[in-house]
Structure formats: C-alpha cells, structure tokens
C-alpha cells in the first residue's frame, strides 16, 4: 500500500482533507496531511512565508516512498520539493493543480489560463502581503457541489494566503522532469478552468492523466471516488519500478 502526503492549496489547511483521509485509510494506505506555513495551526507570520519555506514543509513530512498530492497552488511547493530532493518522494499527483513551467511563478501560470476566474473573488490585504477569498464567493469558487455543512466548515477555517511565494519563479531541471507524475482534472471546476488543467496535464503520460466530475474540491464533494483514483494512480506508479 502507498504512503500519501496531502498538500493543500491557497487559503486552506490540512483540515480540507478531513473526508479523504479515512477513505484512503480504509483502502489500506497510510495518509498524512500538513499545514503550509501560516495556514491551519502553523504559527508562521504572513511576512515570513516563502516558496522555499513551503517546499521545506513538504520535504520535512516526506520520505522516499511517499506519493505527494498537491491541490491547486499546492502544485508549486510539491514541484519545488521534487526539484530539490527527488530522492525524498516516490512521485507527485497534481489534483486540479498548477504544474509549473520552468522559470514561471504561479501567478504567471495563472495569467496564462484561457479564462480568469478568481480576480473578482479575492481581496488583497491592506499591507499587500496576502489575499483572502470574499465570503460570498467561496461557495461558487470552491464548493458549489458540496454539502452545505462543508461550506460552513470551510468558512470557519479559510485563512489569508501569502502572495510572495505565489509570485516566486521556480527553476526546474531534470530532477523535476524525471519525477513520476500524474494529474487529476476536476471537470466542473470554477477556480482553475478544466481546459487549462487539460493543457497542464499533457506534460504527463496519457496513462497518468485522470479526471473526476467535480468542483475544485473533490476531497469534499466526492471523497470516495477521489480515493479510488488515488489508489489506481498509486498502483500505476508501482508498475514503473
């Protein structure tokens, strides 16, 4: 069975994997979820958050047999981790996530999307260091197919997102390019357009490209189906040995 490390996206925390963790454990996998710097229970102040510190949080929780799942912005710190220490993981799974292009920041990647979906939904802090999602935009952006209970649960936990790490460019070499990778597209996504996810997924082998009929948050809307997909991908990684 696989060892999964779950890495959340913007404004979220380890709490967002609440329903997926037991689904994966039921299938016999070991699962851990971490808070990125300044998220959840992590005490880092917003002004101290960097792409490197996010990368280091991933590496601190990973081991050589770990499959790392990155959601949304989480695609960047997991890629940075693979670039620095490819020996510290088994493979990467991008869940409706940004797949970095060499020399580009996440913000630059977002601007390459054929559609811009979040500009009117977020609000920058007065000091310019972070942004939050406007409460009245949260459901449509992240959870439109989720139970109402999920929306209330998330609204109580969403936090500011540091801007600096998302504006940091990432240099990639064969360390990242040679890492086993898979992509899961979310086909009813209001955050990262599904057609852009398709474009980003093309950097991976056809057999490692998957999809789920879901919003941006399949860990809440379809945790059992997502667990099945992750289980299948883990088995696919095993065939690469």
Automatic annotation (TrEMBL):
Residues 4-228 form the AB hydrolase-1 domain. It holds the Pfam family Abhydrolase_6. InterPro entries: AB_hydrolase_1 (IPR000073), AB_hydrolase_fold (IPR029058), Sec-Metab_Biosynth_Hydrolase (IPR052897). Gene3D superfamilies: alpha/beta hydrolase. Signal peptide: none annotated. This is Pimeloyl-ACP methyl ester carboxylesterase. It comes from Ruegeria faecimaris. The lineage of its organism: Bacteria, Pseudomonadati, Pseudomonadota, Alphaproteobacteria, Rhodobacterales.
